[in-house]
Design goal:
12 strands; eight-stranded mixed sheet
């Protein structure tokens, strides 16, 4: 499971699914399965929330079977569309495009992550969700907006607003390791999944 970091990422979009996925993997006996990654390899990546930085431990590998999670961006509200559009034109996109083409990979997004993919032309005709404020923009890209907490379209799973990263993580844990592990992680974090998973 690879969670992608890029300059200006939203820390909660990263940390919420990271913790849930890491706990699920540990309970399934695969404690080293979740990694923070960046295009270009290991480095410190500065997020968009008050300069909070996280360290990417490895390069994003679109050939590695499993999951690739793309977060959204954070910063001043009026700056976020430009941040997302910048990532949609960045080296992140060829790697994510290759991951989407790999039948052994599921690409997942949190919040504005789906808008990044949509602006890059990767979600044409596909059902997806993003932050409530971005649903019209998602529709304008050619994606099919679905008002749900999580939208599971097989090899593409998208989640709504920033806190939905918890729900995305739990959904992926259930997909990968089964309901008993997902329930155990829910109980450990004392968080009950919210909203609807649209399939």
């Amino acid at each position: 499971m690879q969670i992608v970091l890029f300059d200006g990422f939203d820390p909660l979009d990263v940390v919420a699914p990271f913790e849930v996925l890491a706990e699920g993997a540990a309970r399934a006996g695969q404690p080293d399965e979740v990694r923070l990654v960046a295009v270009g390899g290991p480095r410190e990546v500065v997020g968009g929330t008050r300069g909070l930085a996280l360290r990417a431990a490895a390069a994003l590998d679109p050939d590695a079977p499993g999951y690739v999670v793309v977060p959204g961006a954070s910063g001043r509200l009026d700056e976020i569309p430009a941040l997302l559009a910048g990532v949609a034109r960045s080296p992140v996109i060829p790697a994510v495009r290759a991951a989407l083409a790999n039948p052994d990979v599921t690409v997942a997004t949190v919040c504005g992550g789906s808008l990044i993919l949509a602006m890059a032309g990767l979600l044409d005709g596909r059902p997806a969700v993003t932050n409530a404020q971005g649903m019209d923009a998602l529709a304008a890209t050619g994606a099919r907006p679905v008002r749900a907490r999580v939208v599971d379209d097989g090899d593409l799973v998208t989640a709504a607003g920033v806190t939905s990263g918890l729900d995305l993580g739990l959904h992926l844990v259930e997909r990968e390791y089964g309901p008993p592990v997902a329930l155990a992680v829910e109980e450990m974090f004392q968080y009950e999944r919210r909203g609807i998973v649209w399939r």
